[in-house]
Amino acid sequence: MKFNYVGDTGLMVSELCFGTMTFGGVDAGTWSQIASVPQKEVNQMLKAVFDAGINFIDTANVYSFGQSEQLLGQGLKDLGINRDEVVVATKVLGPMSENPNDVGLSRYHIFNSVDASLKRLQLDHIDILYVHGVDAKVPVEQILQSLNDIVATGKVRYIAICNWPAWMVAKAQAIAEHKGWQKFIGLQYYYSAVSRDIETELVPMAQDHNLAIFPWSPLAGGFLTGKYSREGSSEKGSRRADFDFPPIDKDKAFSLVDVMQELAATHQVSVAEIALAWVRHQKSVTSTIIGAKTIDQLQSNIKSTEINLSKEDLEKIDAVSPKPKLYPGWMVQRQSRYRQ
């Protein structure tokens, strides 16, 4: 397992990050379509993760409404994991109850949410706290001040972002620089070979600001596992049959899977391992978030780090992989030719 620096923080994380969205799911509404892993299996997975050298664990307060955090925290305790050997990330934004203030990025909710997460995780600090998305009712400057102050308490070490547009991230970094506040250190965004939207604005912005990128759903919600074809799913009860997310262009995705199946046969691995290897090969990526419902899925995902895709392999994927060609990106590329 390789380790990469997180931006310019000096913090190092494994090239794979273990995502815990599948933990819990008991009486958790929509989350029950995604999560189903109980404590015993949680502990087995965590042991496999640490045995493989992964030191980066990702969860969120909203995953099964706190169950994921609870199961993760108990698993770390059961296994006797040294706190200094694991980087734990969680998130704040989503509604945790019907209480109107138990949601969003208000100072009230950020502080309450961190305390609640720490209690569920059985930890005294969170290594990375993500804002899980946009709160249109709270000014960016106010969000940043609250995050700066929560870091000052010692309950959070670093702050990061999920799902904000590039202009908002850049604005936030400029405000933090001006005020002398904590800056965001990384971005957790949806990124896979079938959904490369972040390459248009977010990746160049991240490179300019030296922000780490942690892709979520690198298998496009299970679509890039080889279980799906134009004839249908080969696995009964597959995730997308119940929860068709994140959205993708399925016609292009089928063509991509065809190519990945050929590469999988050449490398004697699974389609999922090829898809994960592709994400890992992208220069902008610091740590790829993997999840699993079974220990076999987890072990397969971990094995993807052993795959080295050749230039020719990557070109074959690029030939069918949907690339963003949005304005003004294509115009910038066109008009920059005089400098090449």
Q: What oligomerization state is this entry in?
A: single chain
Fraction of residues in H or I helices: 25-40%
Largest sheet: 8 strands, parallel
Unreliable stretches covering 5 or more consecutive residues = none
Secondary-structure-derived class: alpha/beta
What radius of gyration results from the CA coordinates? 20 Å
Give the termini distance in whole angstroms. Answer: 37 Å
CATH architecture annotation:
Alpha-Beta Barrel
Number of strands: 12
User: What is the H/E order?
Assistant: EEEHEHEHEHEHEHEEEHHHEHHH
Give me the number of helical elements.
12
CATH superfamily membership: NADP-dependent oxidoreductase domain
Q: Would you tell me the overall average pLDDT?
A: 95
Strand order of the largest sheet: 9-8-7-6-5-4-3-12
CATH fold node name: TIM Barrel
Apparent shape: globular
Which key features would you list for this structure?
two-stranded antiparallel ribbon; eight-stranded parallel beta sheet; alpha/beta; TIM Barrel; 340 residues
